[in-house]
Design a protein that fits this description.
Order of helices and strands: HHH
Number of strands: 0
Structural class: mainly alpha
Low-confidence stretches: none
Shape: elongated
Mean pLDDT: 80
Length: about 80
Amino acid sequence: MRLFHCAEALDPHLKVGGAIFNTQLPMSERAKAVVRSGKFYAGWYSRQLDVNGRARSTIYIRRCKGHVDYAARTS
């Protein structure tokens, strides 16, 4: 199941930037893929941050810290 989740998470990234690493494609196609990747990641990275510029995952980890500490103490 974990491999499936990993593949699902990477799928959009590979669709956008996979052509960059394909040495069989002409350089013009690879250059277009670089531009598409730049546009994709400009929006993607901005969605990973909250309004204060902190990573959303960091905020989530802080919220769950009490639960994780409790599970560690009681297990």
